[in-house]
Amino acid sequence: MKLTVSQIRKGSVHQPYSFDEHVDVKELESMNNDIRRIDPVHVHGRVDVQGDQFFVTFTIEGEMILPCARTLLDVPYPFQINTNEVFSDSAYYGREEELEEIHPIDGEVLDLMPYIKENILLEIPFRVFSDQVDSEEAAPSAGEGWELISEEKEEKSIDPRMKKLESLLKNNQKEK
Questions:
Q1: HSE-up of 87 (CA within 13 Å, CB side)?
Q2: In the chain, which residue ranges form alpha helices assigned H by DSSP?
Q3: Cα separations in angstroms, 5 against 60, 69, 89, 109, 110
Q4: Cα separation of 105 and 47, whole Å?
Q5: pLDDT for 7-66, tens place per residue?
Q6: What pLDDT was estimated at residue 151?
Q7: Where is the composition biased (Basic and acidic residues) (predicted)?
Q8: Across the strands, what pairs with 22?
Q9: What do you get for the CA distance between the two ends of the chain, in Å?
C-alpha cells in the first residue's frame, strides 16, 4: 500500500488525508510463522501532516487461520490492530530520528506495506485452541513417520530392543 507525498499534501490541506483499502498480505503465509492462510486485510486510517513529518494512524482488520495448539486443526483468528507510525521526508534524517522510531520516506512514496505486515506478525498469539467439541477426535492420530500411541497400547507392546533386557531381569529374579 503506497501513498505519494504529493497526494497526501494535496489531500490534507484543510483536514487529515484519509485512506481505505483492502491489501493482499498472502506473502505472510510463506514466512516461518504459524499463519496457514490469511485473506486480504482491510486497512483504513488517516495521515496528519506537520511540517516534514507525517503521523499515520491506521487500523488493520482481517482474519488469519492458525493451527490449534492441541489438535493442529485450523482455527480462524479474527484481529483488529490499531497502530500509529511517524514518517519524515526531511533531508536531515539522522540518529535522533531513528531512536525515536521516525521512519524515513524514500523519494516521493510512503510505503505502509512493511508496517502492515510487521503489525500482523506481532499480533499472532502464542497459541490458539479450537472451540469444536469433537476436535480431539478430528485430530490426526498418524502421519508421515509418526503415530500416536495411547497408554493401553503402549503397555501391551514391548520394544524389541528391551526384550533381551526383560529376559535378563527374569533370570536375575530366579537366581534370588
A1: 22
A2: 5-11, 27-30, 95-99, 113-123, 135-138, 151-156, 160-175
A3: 21, 44, 9, 6, 7
A4: 14
A5: 887 777 778 888 899 999 888 888 878 888 999 999 999 988 888 888 899 999 999 998
A6: 66
A7: 150-176
A8: 42
A9: 80
Q: What is the pTM of this model?
A: 0.69
What is the tally of structural domains in the chain? 1
Rg (CA), the chain: 28
Q: Is 55 exposed, middle or buried (0-12, 13-18, 19+ CB in 10 A)?
A: middle
φ, ψ for residue 36, nearest 5 deg: -90, -35
Choice between 69 and 95, residue whose per-residue pLDDT is larger:
69
CB 119 within 8 A of CB 83: yes
Q: Which domain holds residue 23?
A: 2-123
Indicate if the alpha-carbon torsion angle 102, 106, 109, 112 is positive or negative: negative
Q: How far is CA 46 from CA 18, 25, 83, 103, in A?
A: 4, 20, 11, 17
pLDDT at residue 28 in the model: 84
Residue 140 lies inside a defined structural domain of this protein: no
In the structure grid, which three cell numbers stand for residue 90, read together? 526531511
Q: What is the pLDDT of residues 146-174, one digit of tens each?
A: 777 766 655 556 667 777 777 777 777 77
Residue 12 in any domain: the answer is yes
Is 60 inside any structural domain? yes
| Cell reading at 125 | 498469539
Instruction: Name residue, grid cell 493401553.
Output: 152
